[in-house]
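Dear U.,

For the methods section draft, I wanted the exact inputs and outputs in one place so we can describe them consistently. I've listed the two proteins in the order they'll appear in the manuscript figures. Please don't edit the token lines directly; just add comments below if something needs changing.

First protein:
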Amino acid sequence: MPVLKAINYLSFPGGLDNTFDMFEAITAAKELGYEALEPCIADTGVLTPEATEAQCKAIVEAAEKEGIAIQSVCSGTYWSRSLGDSDLGTRNLAQEDLRKMIQISAWLGAKTLLVIPGAVDVFFLPDRAPQPYDQVESNAIRGLRAALPDAVRHQVRLGIENVWNRFLLSPMEMAGFIDMFDSPWIGAYVDVGNVMPFGYPEQWLRILDHRVVGVHFKDFKRAVGTAEGFVDLLEGDVDWPEVVRALGEIGYDGPVCAELIPEYRHHPMVRVENASRAMDAILGR
């Protein structure tokens, strides 16, 4: 299957804090057998919404030197503020963030920017009050429509990811949400591990079909059921042969990106190395 084997920046030690050197991440990705890297934008650290074109150019040049592709970008800023938030000021900040991140993605040469448009609930932010589902949806739609001109101008697709935000809970709902924009510049970023507590990733892939613009590889043990259920690739309950068949059926040819959270307490690079070997087996290489 002609897909790139990618690794998400968050998977590296210090990735969640956005402190791992981006150039070291590029080198490590190459050494460990990956073909692409998915950078992450955060409020502080190595790559932020205030990144410059020169900074992005340096990252691209380093990646090209190592033969590492950059085809997608993710961000952790959506949890603290999002397009779907009930507060207007917060929505405005999120809108400006998105504008900047689309530009950064274009500077990096990425085709897709992962977007979490809103959240009814954030399980790891217990002090954040739940927000009305219908308001999250209407605000998110308004914000994405406002961002579309920038996405079109910079040729960057906005990939809506399925996450544990109690929003867009089925592939049918995700498909309907995407279709209302009637634009090839908004699609689905499917995380196969995130689906597992309440569905089947192969079904999501087949139903979302041509809408799929990005794929995260994670594994999950259903018997655990909480965030502690995320495990190494091939250790959980994801039906990997069926996921690969589904990717082939829908003609997906973008990167498949391992996202390994949390990192090992000791020797965290071992997890990144193990995932590379697991992905080779999953992809039949």
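Second protein (the one for the lower panel):
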Amino acid sequence: LLLNKGKFGGEQIISEQSINQLLEIQTTPDKIKYTPKITLGENYALGSWVLDYDANGKGTVFSCPGFNGTWAVIDYCRGYAYFILPKSTNDDDKYIGNKIVKDQIDQQIQSTDCK
């Protein structure tokens, strides 16, 4: 639903306005009192961390690392999403594993609109 602006199966389930509000940056790193090491320095939207931005400062890549090692990513710039269920719950392993997966996908899905 998030990747498709609220649509599923060609039907509008959640309004595009609601999706845009979910993805709007809500706070900046200087306002965040605690964050896991893997999201240190990132801005926060409603329920996800903002990992990359367009030229206007609007989020283009969102992530939601879970406490049990899961990792979800939506990349609007390249038009894909993925979800990882790793064996390890170590924060460093999660971060490194996600970075490897994202880098590999980004090499396969090029976009001139991305930074």
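Candidate sentences for the figure legend, describing the second protein: Strands lie at 7-8, 11-12, 43-44, 49-53, 59-65, 71-75, 80-84. The chain has a mean pLDDT of 83.

Thanks,
Y.
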